[in-house]
Each structure stands twice: as structure tokens, then as C-alpha cells.
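Components:
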Amino acid sequence: MAMNSNEHFEGVAMVFKHLRYALMGLVFCGSWVQANPLDYALTPKEIAPNTWVVTGLTEDFTTQNGGNIVNTAFIVTQEGVLVLDTGPSKRYGEALRQVISEVTEQPIARVYNSHHHPDHFLGNQAFADVDIYALATTIDLIKSRGEAYTENMYRMVGDWMRGTDVLLPNQIQTSGQEIIGGHSLRFMAFSGHSGAQADLVILDETTGVLFAFDLVFYDRALTTPDTPGLMQWLEDIEALSLLDFKTLVPGHGEVTSSTKPLEQMREYLKWLDQVLTDSAAQGLVATEVMRVGIPERFSSVALAAQELQRTVSHLYPNYEDAFFAESF
Amino acid sequence: MLPNLVVAQAHDSVMWDYTRKMFLGDALYQFDDRIRVSLPEFAEDSMQVPVSVDASAIDESIVKMITWADYNPIQHIFTYHPEPGMLPQVSITFKVQQSTPVRAAVLTESGQWLVGSGYVSAAGGGCTLPSESRMNDDWQSSLGQIRAGRFSSTDQPGADRYKFRIMHPMDSGLVANIPSFYLEQVELRSANGDLQVRLELSPAVSENPSISFDLLSSDQNYQLWVRDNDGNEFQRAL
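Structure:
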């Protein structure tokens, strides 16, 4: 259908009007992107002499937080800086190295990966020029699962991961005492969170700081994909509570100078075990156990309901087996 | 005018019209939220996703229950045929290929199709990954072993739950060089041989699946019989 010239003119004006809005949109979007670059904005806090912690959010992985849900730490010694875990991405590792250089002129001496989960070692690429230490079992686990973890992280947090690849630790850490740069460090291997001898714990006897890593979650529900059993984990918590420390750094959650995180872990592990046992005894199916209510006393524990669903997937079949009769 | 819920559920999957015709043909149906389809919010393990269907809020007996996942390459999960005394409550573990709505269509005695829906998010890959037992290769020694338990229901007096896990690779046929090999028929019979329940399974059911159903009558000795598509038969008393 033909338009007369007047209509045609109006049509062109409409196009310009829309174009103007479209351009305005572009301008706004452009400035929005600039105001929100993928910046982890890490702020280390000195929790003991020469000992710094970068505390992550007690959230799950999202495209908003870029996987900054983990605590990393560093100890500045006379022989260089010891870096404890490197975060969820290359970008995080680089940001961590940047804030370390703002705190001290000391070079990085060593890096440690506490265990094989992606938020603890995927920042390794930023430390490719130094030795990276981990337990032998951890190195094997990163070797076999690292790539799948990395893919999954790209899926969950998106562009924050750009350029991130697995960089294996190149040095084996064994249990025992070591004096590095005037710090007396006790290295211990536990199993509760990551599997047989796959959880590194470091006690700095010089400062009294216990780096419990993911054996301890504080006000954030613990995760169970690789636990050999909740009772094993409980045993490890009892062992930690016998150590002589002033400050406790959990893998997820706030740093404290109290034993509250250990008490919370103990209570939570016992409760989980009880729920799974009782449910199996009653013959509940997984979908029912996933919806069991979280007791009021754990109201401060973030993500408890979500993690319960995951834990049921990981552990409930074993609990069910205990109440089945064998084949005959 | 359709109620809003119906519109919402019918439109939350582009596959709905296709899968509905596949399972219900041109039969009239109605969405009904009295049919509860319980799933985890996220499939932590896409090869072992628990689903429970509970149609006990419907005030008449049911003849048949068909469940399927809209976005699975093998949509069908199971079809359940209860005899009197069976409660319309079934749980099973199955595989998901990607995030998907899960449907449970119930045919009532009066001939109505009522449909309940649930949804599970997933990273995926469940149906096209080899089963764990295929990677370990020791499945033959445990094939067909059944672990089972009977539990009295706490919230339904007089009801018993029968729960069992049977060892089977449940190969979907979608993995290269592994033909489909799966349990396809489950029957529960009372001591005098009367059929209590019949269950047809698809290869979308998980490896070593857990299955449970609820019964009203107690103190009977039930016999479980299971057959796979290779003709292997397994049975035990429950």
C-alpha cells in the first residue's frame, strides 16, 4: 500500500525517534558496563601479625559474585609471602596477587592449595612463576577432575572465568613441622571434607592462627560432594578442637577468635547425620528428606536448605542401605 | 476459559503439545495441582534424580499414572498400574539430559486425565553418559540383586511403604557401542498370586534405581518380580 508524502514524513520521524531511544539505551548500557567491570574488589584484613585474610561471601556461585565465595589468606614472612589458596578464577588470582603487592614488597615465596575444589585452586595461573604446594592426593584429584570443575565454573559464573585453566600444583606437601621465614608451621592432612588425606590444615604456631580451610564452614552450610562420611568429618572437628590456636580461619565464613565455628560444625554434622538416619529408618524417599525443615538453632547458617538437597543426593543412598535387607 | 494455572503449565515447555500427544493422544485432560510432583530444585547428579508423584489428594481411585520429562531424549519415565489397596504414591530415580518439566498424568476411574507438573534444573548429560557400572565393568556379578525394606507409614495409619533398590546398568542405548539394556517390567504380587501393582519402566530410569510404593493392606507376604529387555528375570519376597 502506498503512503502519501505526509505519512511518509511521519514514518521517518518515528524511525528517528526510536533511533534516539535506542542510542540513549546504548549510552546508558555503555556507562553501566564501565561502572561495573568484573572487579572482585578484594580487601585483605590483617587478622594477626603479618597474616591477612580475604573473606568471601557466604553465597553460592553466581554470575554476580564471580565465585568470590571463598576465604583466601597470605602470611608475609622475611623469606617472602606464603599464599593460602588462590580463589575461583585466573582473574581472582591476579586480583589477589595485586592486593598482596599493595600490602608488602616481599615476593611470593610459595603457594598452597588446601584441597581440590575449584574455588581454592583456579587462581593458580596468577602464580605460575612460583612453587605451588598441595597434598599428593589433592594433586591427583585436581589432575582427574580439574577440567570438569573448570567447565562447570564457566557455566555457573560466566565471563569472570575468562582465560582460566587448570594449573596443577608442582610440589607435594607432606604432614609435619616446617619453619618458613620465622613462622613455625604445622601441616596436617585430614579427610572429612575432601576424602582420604585430601584436606590440608595449617597451624601457624608463631601467630596462633589455625587455617582450617574447608574442614570448617562458619554460618554457611557445609558441602558434602566428597566427604567419606559425616562421622569422619566430626572426628576431624574433634581433632581440630584439641589444637592450640587463638584465631580460626574457616574456608567459608568469618574469621573468629572463638571456638564457635567448631561447635557449630559439631552440632550441624550431628544433626545432618541424625536426619539422614531417622529418615532412612522411617523409609522416607529422597524427595521427602530434601524438604526436612532446618532447625531454628541453625538460622544463621546460610544456604542450609539448598545444601541439604545436595547432601541428600550425595549421602542418602548409603543411609538407606543400612535399613535394607540384603538379597535372598 | 482455562484457569491461569493450566495456561501457565501448558506453556512452560515448547514440548508440551508434542509429549502430551505422545502419551495421551487426543484425549481431553486437565492440569490439576492436587497431583504433586516432587523433585530437587537442582539435579546434583543428573544420572540419579529422585522424583515422587503423589496423587492421593484426588478423591477417586486411579487406573493408571504416566510420568515423563518433556526435554529428555527418552521422555517416558514410568507407567504405574495400581490394583485396589495401592496408594497413588510412587517414587523413583531417573536421568535428566537438561533442565526439564516433569509430568505426571493420572487416569481416574471416571475416565478423566489429570496432569501434575514439576520442574528440575540440571547441568545435564544424564541420558547420554555411560552408566558407572559400564566404567567399572563389574556389574555382571551384582546384576539383579535387590535390596528392599518395608516401613510403616507414620502419617498414614495402616499404610506400608515398600522401597527397594535393584542393581542394573539401565543402559539407555544413547551411548555409542552400548545397546539399550534396561529393566522394563516390575510386578508386585500378594501371597496368593494376585497382582497388586504393575510398573513399566523406560531406560530413562537411573542405573541401580530406587523405587518405592505405598500400600494400604498390611501383613501380607508380597513377591517382587522384575524383568529386563533381555529377558532376565529377578525376584524376591518383600
